Amino acid sequence: MIVRHRSLLILTTVLTTGALTLTACGSRDDDKEGSSSDKKTTVVIGVDAPLTGANSATGLGIQYGAKIAVDDANKNNTVPGVTFKLVAKDDKAQPATGQQNATALVADKDVLGVVGPLNSGVATQMQQVFATANLVEISPSNTAPELTQGKNWQTDKKRAYKTYFRTATTDALQGGFAADYAYNTLKKKKVFVVDDKQTYGAGLAKLFTAGFKDAGGKVVATDHVNTGDRDFSTLVTKIKNSGADLLYYGGQYDESQVLTKQLKEAGADIPLFGGDGMFTPTYIKTAGKAAEGDLVTSIGVPVDTLPAAKTFVDTYKAKKYPGDYGTYGAYAYDAATAIIKAVGTVVKDGKVPSDARQQVVDAVQKTSFDGLSGKVAFDEYGDTTNKQLTVYQVVKGEWKSVKSGTFEPKN
Amino acid sequence: MNTLPQQLANGLFLGSMYGLIAIGYTMVYGIVQLINFAHGEIFMTGGFGALTVYLVLPDGISMWIALPAMLIGGALVAVLIAVGAERFAYRPLRGAPRLAPLITAIGLSLALQQLVFNLYPKAENARVFPQLPFGPYHLGSIRIQSGDIFLIIAAPLCMAALAFFVRLSRTGRAMQATAQDPDTAQLMGIDTNRIIVIAFAIGGLFAAVAGVAYGVKYGAVEYNMGFLAGLKAFTAAVLGGIGNIYGAMLGGLVLGLAEAMATAYISDIPGMEQLGGQGWSAVWAFVLLILVLLLRPQGLLGERVADRA
Fold first, then answer.
1. Please, what CATH class does the domain formed by A171-299+389-405 belong to?
2. Given CB 3.0 to 4.6 Å as the disulfide criterion, which of B62, B89, B226, B237 pairs with B40?
């Protein structure tokens, strides 16, 4: 027995040593090839978004929006000597999973930039990880103001993380834009405000409430739901009897699509108004007729009205990618393109400098180009300089844009 | 406007669904003393089974024909999974320490969720469920939806059928005997394995009815709908006295009513503004459970050892 064990040990040692030697040789060969001009360097762009489960319809739109940007860059040889590769991680809309993904992306030396995440709540857990590693992160969809302007953004704006950028404009504008539209255009005077207690939903509801009160409207009551709740019968009875002529909802489509259905079934014929987290065809599909007349605000202008985005939309449809490109797809494309362009200024002839990540962050800060969603550039907080917003309404079972514009907070 | 009648009705409908699911927990517990934590997922697969039947039926078919077919389809799936779970997950562990089948049940529940999530087309988002083509009705100031009508007919009907079955049929009497003392029952010539399978099958059957009810009430089924519903139904079963069929139904109703009342009115009490509302619904449900366990640990109706089934 002992003899057999010992021989096994020797065998294992020999094999391991052999394998290690071979691997070492292999990597040295790679280095040699990397420096020759005809062999391309691979740069990885990470994506983090919910690809399964809650919010995955919009999450997949981000993944494939970024994928098309990467494919275009490779096809057009945007950065000579570099082949881009997309690595997508699924955060399931869970902050803890997002943080694990961030750690994994940071550990991959080939990753020079990350697109994502979808949820503001997830972003708060990822920012520090990327900041420590000097890895640039551009979210196509995060709208919570504190992500860029710090916790006390209303009184004392201070950039939170220098590696964090976004191509979506903030809730500070989205909530106010919605409040202004609800009071001045829809002529709604009494609103019932509900949120899902998440970073995004609660923040948005708070900003809408403030904006609506400032405009002269009345908030008759507020309530909160739990994510995963499906029975809102008690809540809709309350809403119906509150005399509100509008329901504002801060949160995602998963809950609001059921809420609006039960609201209309209870006989309360008031529209539900929400943020971009609801702006997906899934909302209309699930809520059915009840969704008719409901409203959302979303960042930017409608993708199909942008001439630059036409090719993107055609490609997305032709490739039959899953997910909704309409919400953030073009913003994910622009986010990935900003990283690709930054890599272009840093990586010359396929040579990646040792401080490439830091240089990419600086290059992204200085970036300025015409993207699919309009001008792509970032201010001193990492926020997009493109402050376009649009109100969409469900008309005959489809989201139709009813008003685009910019919103400037009064103070 | 007085909202109390409507809120009571809301609680009643919600409670009926909890009760329907709770019967499955109670049946199985009454006979094998096993808390089948995968029962919420059996309820979920029942809903998906019914949806599948609807999707394969020709478009535009009348719900009057589709609904019975969906109930049968959902029941087939749920019963098959419940019986399969008994045969392959729980029977091998019979006689093992009680913790073992409990852990298996939790594992099974996660596995079923992931299976539906990964294998059912487009299950990552809520799947739209067909609606019943009538309603809403008005009863005074109360508004009743078609889905609620289905629930308030199905729940008492299932309940009565089960009560008759357990009291009057030979199999029902064999179930009572097995519940009292499995070993003696076996000596008296009762095939206890068969009885246990029947208990699981009946539990699955009612779970499927509840799954269809959930679909027609909320207009959608989801791969993860079984978790919270299962937890609430388990609470209802314990509330009523686990192992007691009537207790399960009563516990469900009490739980549904308590949840609706707390959600609707607690925030109106001065000083409690922050402790009411929809976000607290689950909290009050579990506060009620804790209170009952403290004051009346055997449940509202008690675990009636003599004829629990």
1. alpha beta
2. B226
